[in-house]
């Protein structure tokens, strides 16, 4: 039932993608804003309490409804699974930005590509060249695919899968909503949300990196993962982008960030040598966007194949 639930949810999403501003997501966003306003008194333990209020308030009802559906009929539980996977997946939610950037770069319209990238990432894209636009688009695409697809897959396979999938997506959202806004960057309130999501995403992130390595350039992916993942300040992002970049044969991320840290810590650092030790691969180009799409689809097919084999083994 798990395999069929994911398969049907993916098919439905291909036909009718769920918008990022849909009413359900907006309600969750409003709830997060209200809880932050109610609980935020400047301490980390307040953030922990607020996190549990939201996560428990959404996952427990999901689990209860799933249990009721199982009691009523397996078909009711199957329908509930499809609905939850459809709501938590985001395979097509941001793909229109990626596709628009790809088409704009292919036609030579760099201004349009910068505009689409700015709308998607909320970054200042003024003055970005084609290589930088391509690199950032690929990076955001790989990270978004992991957090909106592969991470959901992993947690949906756990016991009481629908509740676990909701927990993952809510935890992922809170880790950003309570740390990334300008007024929250120096607050302790979001520390717990960041720490707990790190552990929630610890296994899924590594499985995503393995999938990229298997369906891409395996040797370069593993080499980049082992040697360059720690050059990102965010460990999970470093693992996914280093493995994904190695699988694509493209340099992703900004490893110079780590070089600056090394330079600050060491008394004698040769900057030229640090630049020579940059991640292997070529500079990102518009073709890298198409390669990234192929990598993601192959990784998705790998996940589905493994899930099918697992389902068959359980049935037998």
Number of helices: 15
Distance between the termini: 14 Å
What is the β-strand count? 0
Q: Any idea how many domains? A: 2
Kindly estimate the percentage of residues that lie in beta strands according to DSSP. Answer: under 5%
Task: Indicate the structural class.
Answer: mainly alpha
Sheet of most strands: none
User: What proportion of the residues is helical, as a percent range?
Assistant: over 70%
- Please write the string of helix (H) and strand (E) elements: HHHHHHHHHHHHHHH
- Rounded to the nearest angstrom, the radius of gyration is 21 Å
Q: What number is the mean pLDDT?
A: 86
Any low-confidence stretches, pLDDT <50, length ≥5? Answer: 255-276
The backbone outline, from C-alpha atoms, is: globular
How are the secondary structure elements laid out?
Layout: H1 2-15, H2 23-39, H3 44-72, H4 74-88, H5 95-106, H6 110-121, H7 130-156, H8 161-177, H9 191-200, H10 202-215, H11 218-228, H12 235-248, H13 256-265, H14 271-276, H15 286-315
Helix pairs in contact: 1-4, 2-3, 3-4, 3-8, 4-8, 5-6, 5-7, 5-15, 6-7, 7-8, 7-10, 7-12, 7-15, 8-9, 10-11, 10-12, 10-15, 11-12
Tell me about this structure.
The protein has helices spanning 2-15, 23-39, 44-72, 74-88, 95-106, 110-121, 130-156, 161-177, 191-200, 202-215, 218-228, 235-248, 256-265, 271-276, 286-315. It is mainly alpha-helical and 316 residues long. It folds into 2 domains: 2-200 and 285-315, no CATH class; 202-284, no CATH class. Helix 6 packs parallel to helix 7, helix 7 packs across helix 12 (235-248) and helix 10 (202-215) runs parallel beside helix 12 (235-248). Pfam families: CobD_Cbib.
